[in-house]
Amino acid sequence: MAEIATFERVLWGIILFLKLALFLLLIYRKNYRVYPCLFAYILPTLLQSPVLFFCYRIWGFSSQMSVNIAWSTQGLVVDVRALAVGEICRRVLQRYRGIWALAWRMLLAAAGLVLLYSWAVGRPHWQLAILNADRVFELAIALTIGILFLFVRYYEIEMAPAERLLAIGFFLFSCFSFLNDTILERRLYDYDVLWNLAGTVVFIPCLLLWIWALRQPQPETVFQPQMLPSNLYAEFAPEINFRLKALNEHLNQFWSAEARRP
Amino acid sequence: MSLFLYVFFAIAGLLLFLFLWSMRKPHRRGGALPDAGILEERGPGSVAHLPQIQQAFADSDFEFLFERAQSSLVRRVRRERRQVALAFLSAVREDFDRLLHTATIISVLSPEVAALHEFERLRLIVKFNLRYRIIRMQLHLGLAPIPRLSRLSDLVSGLSVRMETAMKELGERAALAAELASSLDRRGGDVA
Description:
By secondary structure, chain A is an all-alpha fold. Chain A has two domains: 6-224; 228-262. Chain A has eight helices and no strands. In chain A, helix 4 (97-121) runs antiparallel to helix 5 (129-154), helix 5 packs antiparallel against helix 6 (161-186) and helix 6 (161-186) runs antiparallel to helix 7 (188-213). The radius of gyration of chain A is 23 Å and the shape is globular. The N and C termini of chain A lie far apart (83 Å). Chain B has a domain at 50-151. Helix content of chain B is 73%, strand content 0%. The interface between A and B is large, with 62 and 70 residues.
């Protein structure tokens, strides 16, 4: 335990307090019903801190046992975080059936491709396997949220402020964790202390963001818009594309045909 | 640092850029929330002025002026025509955006959406934006000659009219269904 700097211990204390606050807020505002996966993410995150604390006390900070337990709990936390992100995507897009059907396939495919790519180009070293897995998961989560934001913007979908803040928190945390893990993988021995500290520092604003997002009870059911008949899309979507294509060609002529004039 | 690390930093940078871009306040293309109520078109738009604009761009007018008027006047006319071309281009852009807005609402409110059509539209939007900006920049710099504007906006107007008709039909059907339902309710109430 003596290996952990005092400053980091203070940060741990702050994080534990914030996690507890978020956990209690989820229960007090009954938001666990609205975001069960988020609740399922906060619970192991909260339990992770005392588990690691006792591990470090019993086996020491740098012991193999502590490292194994720390990474195992981290694996669980990242998995549940992915579920929580999926839940936010679903809540934002699910009310638009057609868009959701397209989006979830795209999100899953993008996340899967990133997982495959990152795994393929990662260092083939078994000791780094867990770190690599953590990193690719973080990238996949960040990419998923990035695509969600693109969908929201492209289709002009209204996003509830709470969901927006939750997604921003997840996105920034995953992006940072991904970069942090990447640097750690390259500079394993001279970065590990800073890696731990940086990860802890970044988690604090994310927790504050989530607390702020969930300060009010969230509606369990979301507004369901009235859907149009499906034949309308089938009739107009190709027609619009055809017109847009023709308009593009005309724009091209607008420029090139006149360039030939004296 | 290795290439690997650069690639990963680039990915993270791109993600952050996309994130910030998507966080910008969206300019709603002439509308509010996706709602069946805003599917109605708002008149013919810039297309209504097409004959006058075409007249202003007629070659015969310009040739007549070139033969008889002073060069300063020709230059002035050319400059003014360029301004008209820019204004018309903007108006066509507005029509294009309005069509896209309608297309977006149809996609959002449709129970089934085809990925092929959506990707095709995205590709066309990117292409249109790129060309539009190039032409606009050239007109601003005086690099592009005065364009012919014929038929350009017909493409937008044709679809707008058809869509308006479809939406009107849809609205009438919905109103009829609502009326039927309420009359059935009334009858039910009488029986009771």
